[in-house]
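Predict fold of FkbM family methyltransferase; 239 aa.
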Amino acid sequence: MSIESVKRWFWIKRTVNKVRKRPKQPPEKLAAVIKDHKIDLVLDVGANVGQTGEMLREIGYKGRIVSFEPLPSAHAELTAKAATDALWTVAPRVAIGDSVGTATIYESEASDVSSLLPANEDMYKAFRKTNVVGEAETPVATLDSLYDDYAKPGDRVYLKIDTQGFEKKVLIGASETLKKVTGLQVELSLLPLYDGETTYLELLQMIHALDFQPYILTETTFSADLRRQLQIDAIFFRD
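Predicted 3D structure, encoded as tokens:
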């Protein structure tokens, strides 16, 4: 076997037997569009343990960040991580949806795939760490009900939504907020991964109807077991 064949075999073994999850947004692209649109407030819905906040600081964003996260363990880690950043606020533990109330969040072995929706068979096939290791009751609020607690008139707002199948409900509960948003980032599933999830086409139609234009599309999750792309991140701005 040639050296090149050996290298290729190891590459296949390393990548094809795993789900590839969430590479960073191309930093020069995201940094440029955030700067061009003069964003000064990022609403991070589904913050998990603060990956988006960290990435924003890495690419040079110096404005305010407000993070929302419902999972108790992730919220605690997120709060600790943001504590040293005066412009990074973590809201009290809450899930963002289309109504105000309470719900159960299913905590997966990998906390970033935890969801208010049960994972379906394809998700379990694609990502073994979907296995549920606990459940927690969480408050639920709409973004519209919380917006004025964190935003000021004149803010240039970038809204990031990564809620593992709950994206449509977040958008429905943000009908007034979305009128004030300049940039929007949404994780889109190319096939349903959670029971009741709305996939990419309907969400794209909703976002298009709000006059957002696509700026960046980025691969996030590919499943070698299913031999297909599962999700992408889509970034939109109003021109």
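Residues 21-237 form a domain with the Rossmann fold fold (CATH 3.40.50.150).
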